[in-house]
Amino acid sequence: VVTTDTVYDYSDSFDTDSLLHVKNETLLWHADDSNGLRIRKPIEPGIDTMSVQTIVQLINNNYDSIDIEYVKISHDTIYVHIPNSEMLTERIGSTGAEMFMASATYSLTELKGIHYVNFDFIEGAHAAPGVYDRSYFNKIE
């Protein structure tokens, strides 16, 4: 049996050939790494009035190969699960993982009364599960 390593060309520009491609950043909080990590507000208003299912669906529709599942809300924390976390933890690099986690955290904490996101997934080289809030991503525009 002959095996070969798969090599991915990680693009800093996150264009359409990138492993982490944001399809519609106008509705969600968007992380940009062009000059350090910056978190940008949604261009379109209304994320603060969306349901949890709508925000989860937007996140899943916007990020290729990373799907989150809503688990529950308890007090001020939303619990989500990423069943197949290899893309997040091993394939998009540390910057890509941080950008995804920041975008998802900011977007999910737009829900009324939600201040924390508990991510459940298998830890990898570039991302770890746990409880995140906006202060974790301290470089905000």
Please render the helix and strand layout as text.
Layout: E1 30-32, E2 38-40, H1 52-62, E3 69-74, E4 77-81, H2 86-91, H3 93-108, E5 116-120, E6 130-132
Parallel strand pairs: 4-5
Antiparallel strand pairs: 1-2, 3-4, 5-6
Helix pairs in contact: 1-3
Q: What is the radius of gyration computed over CA atoms, rounded to a whole number of angstroms?
A: 15 Å
The secondary structure category is alpha+beta
Number of strands: 6
What characterizes the major β-sheet?
Answer: 4 strands, mixed
- Name the helicity range: 10-25%
Secondary-structure element string: EEHEEHHEE
What order do the strands of the largest sheet run in, or round the barrel if closed?
A: 3-4-5-6
Shape descriptor reads globular
Number of helices: 3
Low-confidence stretches: 1-22
Average pLDDT across residues?
A: 81
**What distance lies between the first and last C-alpha atoms, to the nearest angstrom?**
51 Å
Per DSSP, what share of the residues sits in E-state strands of 2 or more residues? 15-25%
Highlighted features:
single chain; 141 residues; alpha+beta; four-stranded mixed beta sheet; two-stranded antiparallel ribbon; 3 helices; 6 strands; 18% strand; globular; disordered N terminus
Can you describe this structure?
This protein is α+β, with helices and mostly antiparallel strands and 141 residues long. It has helices spanning 52-62, 86-91, 93-108; strands at 30-32, 38-40, 69-74, 77-81, 116-120, 130-132. 23% of the residues lie in helices and 18% in strands. It has a four-stranded mixed β-sheet, with helices on one face. The protein is globular and about 35 Å long. The termini are far apart. Residues 1-22 have low confidence and may be disordered.
